[in-house]
Amino acid sequence: MKRRILFWVGMFFLLVLPEVVAAKSPGFYVGAASCDITPDRPATLAGQFATRISQGVATPVTANVVAMEWVDAEGKSDYVIWVSLDVAVISPDFSIPMRKAFQEKFPQLEPKKLILSATHAHSTPSLTSRDNYLVRDKGIMALKQYVPYVTERTLLAIEKAWESRTAGKYAYGMDFAVVAYNRRAIYADGRAVMYGNTNDPNFRAMEGMEDHDIGCMFFWNAENKLIAAIVNVACPAQENEGSMKIDSDFWHPVRTTLQKKHGEDLVVLGLCGAAGDMSPHIRYRHAAEERMRELRKLSRTEELARRIVAAVENVWEVVEERREVPSVMRHLYEEMELPERKITEADYRRAVSEAERLEKVAAESQDGGASNGSYSMAKWHRRIAERWEKLSTNPNPTYSTCVHVVRIGDTVWCTNSFELYTDFGVQMKARSPAKQTFVVQLCDGLAGGGTYLPSERAMRGGGYGAIIQSNMVGAEGGQILVEKTLELANQLFPKK
C-alpha cells in the first residue's frame, strides 16, 4: 500500500508538476487555432445598403485566434487572446453575448483580454442589427441565429488556442504592397466624392494619403514550428463587395498561399489597419493595372493576395532567423467617451427630407425597398433625426468606445472600433515610441461599431463617409482618440 502511494505521488511530480511549473516559469507562451464560421444555409450579406441573401459560398469565412501569455521573473502574468473574424464589423450585437459566453466558459480569464477584430469583408454574413436589412424569407440564417453560431465555434477555437500554449518565440517586420487606394476624389469646386470619377475635367486629386505598409508578426511553438502569422494591411476586404456569394475576399487566397508554403495548419490572422478612406478598388491607371492582371491570368482578389504574400515572404526571408522570446509583453485596455459629431438643424432637415423621399421609393417598390436599398437608406437618414431630437435633453452627447494597446517586445499594437481615416493611423505610427507600430481598426465596438471617423479635410469635402449620416464621431474626437492611444503606448515604453 505504501509503495502504491509513493508511486502515485511520484507520478504526480512527473506528470502534473511540470505543467504547473511551466505555467509559472518566466517566458512567452503562444497557441493558435482557426475555425470555420461559414453559415450552413443562406444568410444576409453585410456591406451594402441593398438587402442581399447569399446564393452559395465563394470562399469560406473563418475566425482565427492567437493566444499569447507573458510571465515575468516574479511569476506575474499578462496575456491577450486576439481573434480576427471574416466579418464586416464587430458590433455590440455580437461582442456583448460573445464576451458573456467567454466569461462563462473561461471564468479564470478576463473578458477585457479578448480582442475581437473584423477584416471588414463586405460579402460576409451580417453581425449587426444596424444594417437594417429587409428580410422576409424565414429560411435564412438571421442575426439571432448567426451570433450564437459564430460564438460557439469561435469559443472552441479560443479554447484550443489557449490550451495549446507552449513556450514560444516571435519575429516581426514590415514590407510594402499596393493593396489599397484612397477612394475619395476631389473636384475643382472642393467637393469630395467616394468612388468619384477621376476621368473628369474637374477632377483634381485624391483626397488623402495611402498607407502601403504590410506589418507582419510570426509565432513559433516550443518545437520551433511556425504556428501563426499576423498580417496587418490598411485595406478593407471589399474587392468583391457586391457579390451574392459568401466571400472572405482577398484574405482567402492570402491564407491558402501562405499555408501551401508554411503548412496547412498555419493560422493566418488578417488585421485591417486604419482605412476608412481606403479601398482595394483601382481609382486611376485602371487599364494599365488590369492589363497586367490579365497577363498574369489572375482574378483581382488573387492579384491583391499575390502582392500581400510577396510582402509577407519578403519579411519572412529577413526575420526567420531573428526569432526570439520577446523581452516583455504588456496589455492595456481603456474605455473612453468621445464627443459625438454635432448635428446642425440643416443636417436634420436634409436628413428628414431624404428619409421621406426614400420611404416613398420603398413603399412603391415591389419588394419594399430591399433590392434597391431605399428601405435601409431611409433608416440611415432617420437615425440623424433621432439624434437631433435627443440634443434637447443632452446637448453634448458622447460616444462610448475602447482601445487596446499591446506591447510585444519592441512593437506595439493599437486598436480602435471605427472605420478610421488613414490620417489618424499614420499619426499613431509616426509618433509611436515603438520600433514598429500596428494599427488595427474595427475592434470591439461598445456602442455601434464600424462608423466612419473622418479627417478634418474629409469633413470639409463632404460626401459619403464624411457626412453626418456616416459618422458618430468627427475629426475632433479622432484627435482625442489618437492622443489617448499614444498616451497608453508611451506608458508601455517608459523613458529611461
Notes on the protein architecture:
There is one protein chain. 35% of the residues lie in helices and 24% in strands. The strands form six sheets. The protein has a five-stranded mixed β-sheet with strand order 4-3-2-1-5, with helices on one face. A four-stranded mixed β-sheet has the order 6-11-12-13. With 496 residues, it is of the alpha+beta class.
Layout: helices, strands, pairs:
Blueprint: H1 2-24, E1 27-36, E2 62-71, E3 77-85, H2 92-105, E4 114-118, H3 143-163, E5 166-167, E6 169-176, E7 181-182, E8 184-187, E9 192-194, E10 203-206, E11 213-220, E12 226-233, H4 251-262, E13 267-272, E14 278-279, H5 286-296, H6 300-319, E15 329-339, H7 345-364, H8 374-390, E16 398-408, E17 411-415, E18 419-420, H9 422-431, E19 436-440, E20 452-453, H10 456-461, H11 475-492
Parallel strand pairs: 3-4, 12-13, 17-19, 18-20
Antiparallel strand pairs: 1-2, 1-5, 2-3, 6-11, 7-14, 8-9, 8-10, 11-12, 15-16, 16-17
Helix pairs in contact: 2-3, 4-6, 7-8, 9-11
